Amino acid sequence: MDSTVMPNSNSTPEYKTFENKSSCEKGINIGDWRVTTRKDRIYNSEEIDRISDETKLPQIPEMYFGFNHITIENTKTNVKWSFNTNDALRKVQINLKENENWVRVAVADKWNASRNSKEEEEKKKIHRPYDWTFSTDFRGKIENTTAEVTKERIDITKLMRRDPILFFDQVILYEDELGDNGIATLDAKVRVMPTGIFILGRFFLRIEDVLCRSNETRVYLEFDKGYILSEYFSRELPIEDVKKALPAPKPWEPEERQKLTEVKMITDPNWVSSVLTKKDHPSIMDVSNKIIDENIELETGPDNNKILDPEKLNLPKSKFGNGNIGYVIYEKIQ
Length: 334
Known about the structure:
Radius of gyration: 22 Å
Structural class: alpha+beta
Mean pLDDT: 88
Order of helices and strands: EEEEHEEEHHHEEHEEEEEHHHEHHE
Low-confidence stretches: 119-127
Shape: globular
Largest sheet: 9 strands, mixed
Number of helices: 10
Helix content: 10-25%
Strand content: 25-35%
């Protein structure tokens, strides 16, 4: 099903929305750009085995939508940027050594404290040679060009304007409840305005009574500029620090209702991410400034983003394991 809309002003390019139910895809053609989203079924057992073998992960998320993606493509240059499930999963760490990059659930310390013999010490070790939280620092896959580090920032004021939305969609890529110990989700949203395209891809992690983590990729294309700006930002906090940002309870509300409000907010990825994603926090490292100011040479990875060498850049490390977190990088794609 297609629908073409002619521009009603000089600032709105001609655009045409489309939908193909057989391929579970829909999107919009606007100017020289095409946005496509796909919301398909979860992988079946055969497909799960295949991606598990390919990624060397002994387990993949419970709800795994391996066909899903959001893609921007320039129809003239064929430059393409996509946020897709399988490439994101390939960024999950594997072959971890014992106690390396290991996040423990809150009950583990209590369980460990109750056992002190050497035999019990051996029994209590959980050998999982991969990151069981499925944390990914995927920044999107680029085709037919490469990303360059930049100091240019996404103009947030333009995104805050109440421009008409010509197309919107949200796609879930994977989700796992981590054995009832929290939640790990990867999803993406896209909105198309008369002036440009904005995409937010987010990995969100909450481990009960332990931590919250958010890895976010923001992509913004302004039609009059003709190139894509990408911002990747990561941060985590202990759950107790996140709770400090909760609004003060209303003294007249029953205690039960106050607890329900707290649970609702702590389990809301949007609210928690708003607490985490404060790029001006002194603990956040601006990697772009470091790379450019110190003229650091970086290799380009298979996704055509720059490979962020943790040692060369001295990237901040997670206090809970799972590699490097607590930094922001800006890239230009054209």
